[in-house]
Amino acid sequence: MSQPTLSPDVLKIDLAAEADRIGRWMVDTLSNKLHRRGIVVAMSGGIDSSACAALAVHALGPKKVFGLLLPERDSSSFSSHRGRMLAEHLGISYEVQDIAPALEGLGCYEKRDEAIRRVFPAYGDGWKNKIVIAGGTERGINFFKLVVQSPDGQMHEARLPVKEYLQIVAATNFKQRIRKTMEYFHADRLNYAVIGTPNRLEYDQGFFVKNGDGAADLKPIAHLYKTQVYAMARHLGAPEEVCNAVPTTDTYTLAQGQDEFYFALPYAQMDLAVWAHNHGRPAAELAKALGIDEAHAQRIYGDIEAKRRTTHYLHARPELVEPIPQVHA
Fold first, then answer.
1. CATH number of this structure's domain 106-167, picked from the four choices 3.30.200, 3.30.890, 1.25.40, 2.60.40
2. Statement: residue 91 has pLDDT above 80
3. Is the whole model's pTM more than 0.90, yes or no?
């Protein structure tokens, strides 16, 4: 049997059947494995959390789904707007909690800005920042650049030394970990379970924070490529404004797409590349599908494997000296 031509069509699925399958899995997981009454979902206004919330309502009904909107100082106003819109569209109870005071108390912004000033000493009030990835698909080694914008609109960038990169990332990871703390507070309060929202790209490539957005009781879309998540949200009737939202990290003060921060390509092309790699398609075939040369396609495959190796730690369970046979994880 011949393989299908490598094109976006390989990512098409029966959305109604898949929504029902995920719904049955959610009900069974809650009832028979987790023994919880409902689901808590943090709603960022992005497509992944929106699809998860819609799937939860599809499975359990709106009365058993609780939404959280957890903005902070650097969050886009559009994120909260879309999160509210979806919660009200789905008819679920939700709460808004500004986590900026907690982050300030932990030194999130202070420690981040301290590291930025070691690269750009003039950085201060009114400046904006983001981190972008570079090099991985051109030279074979990923490195990161710090991009800042001064109050007069001038853009500056510099390659980030490892020490400063690690401190900036460690500080911003407070955001995901505080959000998860709030999710589990409400899960404990309601005897609910917490949904994790990574899609296939994020789960596969380690684009999440350990014990932050990587922590959850169930992850209903970790097998769905980003393209499929968009299609699922539309199938479940999410508002068009939500379905048209461009993927961002919503972590840094400058607008930042996920592709410029972490992935080698925009999500639709990255979906196809990961799918092709997972299905053993040669680099030459990916090159033709994406309109690039074969060497570039091979570097993309190499980058996929490199991220899997370097982010294995994020998936790992705690190590034990010896197994505890009475405890079944």
1. 3.30.890
2. yes
3. yes
